[in-house]
Amino acid sequence: MLVALIGMTACSDDKEYTQEWTYTGNNTVTVDKEYPPVNITCKVTLRENGTIEVEMPEYQLLNTTIGNLTIGAVTIKNIAYDAQKGSYYRVFGKDDLQMHYKSEGGRAPMEGDYTFNEDSDIDVKLIENGSKGATIVMTYSFGKMPFKIISKFEVEVNK
């Protein structure tokens, strides 16, 4: 399992109690195939209303079939717990969220701020309420992409 740095804080944001976990670990991305993991740091915030939000950072994925990719930062809010899935889940594609995306040096050069397609989603499993780690899977695409990008961030804190 991956070893990670984890920070846990409690803070007040507009009088709404939150709990935050900051994780550093490997993010495996599948575009047309699975690529070697990229080390990133992301943050999960638990809100008083029981939802979470996830902040994914910008990172680069080099030497893919379609070129060198820069995947922009994004924050996804209001991710509710889904008892059937046993995880926090949200289809965020209808939230009008955008991500800066860049592909260069390959077959599909493009760069800009792109709105996620409607079926883009996120699934977050917290291990022991976040204190022992998380698995975050984002499946998304933009515009007329002929494929989906699947980002799987996994981190388990060994104590």
Q: How are the secondary structure elements laid out?
A:
Layout: E1 6-13, E2 16-30, E3 38-47, E4 52-56, E5 59-64, E6 67-71, E7 74-82, E8 87-91, E9 98-104, E10 110-115, E11 121-127, E12 133-140, E13 149-156
Antiparallel strand pairs: 1-2, 2-3, 2-13, 3-4, 4-7, 5-6, 6-9, 7-8, 8-11, 9-10, 11-12, 12-13
Total helices: the number is 0
Biggest sheet details: 8 strands, antiparallel, barrel
Q: SSE order in H/E notation?
A: EEEEEEEEEEEEE
What strand order characterises the main sheet?
A: 2-3-4-7-8-11-12-13
CA-atom Rg in angstroms: 16 Å
Tally of strands: 13
Span from first to last CA? 12 Å
Note the overall shape. globular
The averaged pLDDT comes out at 87
Sheet/helix structural class? mainly beta
The share of residues in extended strands comes to over 45%
Give unreliable regions as ranges.
1-15
State the helicity in percent bands: under 10%
Structural write-up:
The chain has 159 residues and is an all-beta fold. 0% of the residues lie in helices and 62% in strands. The protein has no helices and 13 strands. It has strands at residues 6-13, 16-30, 38-47, 52-56, 59-64, 67-71, 74-82, 87-91, 98-104, 110-115, 121-127, 133-140, 149-156. An eight-stranded antiparallel β-barrel has the order 2-3-4-7-8-11-12-13. A hairpin with a 5-residue loop joins strand 11 (121-127) and strand 12 (133-140). The model is unreliable at 1-15 (pLDDT under 50).
